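Name: Oxysterol-binding protein
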Amino acid sequence: MEDSTSFITVITEAKEDRCVLQAGPAAPSVLDGASLVPKGPPKVKRRVRIPDKPNYSLNLWSIMKNCIGRELSKIPMPVNFNEPLSMLQRLTEDLEYHHLLDKAAHCTSSVEQMCLVAAFSVSSYSTTVHRIAKPFNPMLGETFELDRLDDMGLRSLCEQVSHHPPSAAHYVFSKHGWSLWQEITISSKFRGKYLSIMPLGAIHLEFQATGNHYVWRKSTSTVHNIIVGKLWIDQTGDIEIVNHKTQDRCQLKFLPYSYFSKDVARKVTGVVSDSQGKAHYVLSGSWDEQMECAKIVQSSPSSPSSDGKQKTVYQTLPAKLLWKKYPLPENAENMYYFSELALTLNEHEEGVAPTDSRLRPDQRLMEKGHWDEANTEKQRLEEKQRLSRRRRLEACSRGCGTEEEKEADVYMPLWFEKRLDPLTGETACMYKGGYWEAKERQDWHMCPNIF
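Structure predicted for Oxysterol-binding protein:
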């Protein structure tokens, strides 16, 4: 696999490439239509604003100074540092650019499909550029559904399956021919000047028509200027996307922001290669704005640089736009910088499970601007959760070992179950079914009372 930082791209005129690649007319490509910028999520009767964020002041350092080196999920935080969404809703927000996967489902070329999958994986970070507030930690057993078959063509379900460490299981079905699932554990550490957020776990994506099965993991997020200055977030690290059916690969590199660099801020680069290691596409863009792909027509080594390293020179056709970020709604700066989709996620809906994040009282109070009442309610819910945990541990049968083993033994997710992932070799929670059938019957007798 070509390291995405060790290549140089040279654009070749399309007419020159025709002589090299083909004698007849070009085969149609799904990517040919990818340069059209989508107009945004479908317009349905959903809310387009929430109450403005109150102007409460609270010193972040006064709380964080005692948290250096500690796992932040175990430290109670006032809602003043939150946004009125749960982590389950933030996870669901990754689906904002689902149209990329809808388009990918029509690809006959696996390397073209990989380009769109890579763009989708990058697009999930675009909402984070201004979103420095933390989402609510879900209660154990909390759920969030997104039932948007009519306009988005998909159904999504998340469940909080572990509290320490905080883990969420997620399953998405699309009527456009794909499904996505993951179990994500969030690890966060305060390092003194910055906060590291490390999502752990594999993301799976499968297309029904071809059986192409993609797996990748998320990069590390870093929040800077915890002590002094304006908070800002960066995404860094490498993401490898593997198609386990064809062995195609895409290596994405998220370059760290540098004040002194002349390069594009928040830059992402990548190369799509087939099972033989032959590079087919170069990817470039930024995780907060857009991604492009350029078809490679020829590659050759460059002369060694002063440090002795040699880069590959890729001659490519002109780049095509894969994805472009939607503009933020009007007044977004006063609404936690929520996207158009994010504004709808906590909107009240009839018929959801009683464990749904929309029904969480402290989060609802915070959204309405009643932060003092929200903090009081948050403390009540956290104490209720601690009491439930103590009761589970007391009821645990003999033969259990550590407290962690006991909790794993006695808490069983309602809609997901632990299975061995044959591709990663890890044990992960996967959807076992039943949720949408229960919703159809409006039978929620099995749901715990967590709120």
